[in-house]
Fold this protein.
Amino acid sequence: MNELFLNKKMLDDMQKKKDMSDDIYVINVGGQTGDITTSKIKYANAQEKEVRYISVKLLKGIIADYALKCRKDISLCKI
């Protein structure tokens, strides 16, 4: 298969996931939002989906808490 076909398929699959979702999460890395992310936020708003924002600092804290729980009880961390 050619690369163009695979890229289109990947984008189509991502669009389906966005359409099926109830909300989206925007992970803010550097305090700025790029054009692509902005367009996804606008699309979610137009579809009346909830847009939630999370910072990298908060995300690191969530991951650290999860890792600590896994060390205490590995059965909690089956994915």
Notes: The chain has three helices and two strands. The chain has a mean pLDDT of 78. The radius of gyration is 17 Å. The CA atoms of residues 23 and 49 lie 5 Å apart.
